Amino acid sequence: MEKNDLFLKTINCIKEPDYSIKEESRHKIDFKTKPVGSLGKLEDLALQMCLIQNDLNPRIDKKLLLVFAGDHGIAYEGVSAFPSEVTSQMVYNFLNGGAAINVLCRYYGIDISVIDIGVNHNFENAHELIDKKIRKGTRNFAVEEAMTEDEALRSIEAGMDVFFNNYNKSKVDILGLGEMGIANTTSASAIISTVTGISVENATGRGTGINDDIFKHKINLIKKACGIHKPDPKDGIDILKKIGGYEIAGIAGAVLAAASKKTAVVLDGVISTAGGLIAYLIKPEIKDYLFSGHKSVEIGQKSALDFMGIDAIIDFNMRLGEGTGAAISMNIIDAACHIMREMASFEEAGVSNKD
Q1: Which active-site residues does the annotation give?
Q2: pTM of the predicted model as reported, rounded to 2 decimal places
């Protein structure tokens, strides 16, 4: 399939942030009423937001979190502690406001949208659900490719479209990305191993809390699948096609769309990090728009972040997904912007600086 106008137009609009105010931003944060560097990561976050917005007074007014949901054919190989029906059940929970991500979004004032991009279920009376279904779950990539190239591109474009539809209604200043999909850590681990070159063992975690036997089975399945399909480690579309997930592709599309509008993007755990990794392969210029919300318990995430040159903001021992770590860190990034705008300098406060 040829890449259509939405894909190409979005990719072509992505430019690196303007670094011309980097020195001025550093000077501003250094001369606030504190020892240099004493606010640690908050200072780094503030500086990155200055560059993203090309503004010495960065501001976050609109926060949006997108939760992409999709099923995986690989689930039928028994790689998860939960049955695949849990994907659709959790989508209903999101829509009813009962999940952890709903609680955090309410608390932090984050708008949330839930997208069915590939759930194996017909949703009824789900008026708040955004329907972008590509297919009722990917194919079982242990025996065949996960999706067609057409489906991979349509999934990316679906993620782009969801972001743009939200952005066009009200400018989005920061985007968080979450997901739901039973067995999606299997796909994410395969993607991370392929792209970074680390072993499958070092890319694979226990996901929903599987036992030792299932864990070994999961690793062997990923090795077998990657050996059969031989995804190209430099080609994000090829990787998605062979071992990906629709929700991972949707996340990649949303990342690319947000970067094209100079919107900050906060990844969550290992799944959304795999989506960010795909976006990074497609357009490396997105890197400085990305934040990693939290350090996941899933071991593969760190290698993916290292590959992109990103550090996680918090480490709360989390591995839930849904966008929970992203939601918490969106608030921390907002706090950093307030520091940059509102904290007085030594001169403004009449406080003596060190000699």
Answers
A1: 322
A2: 0.97
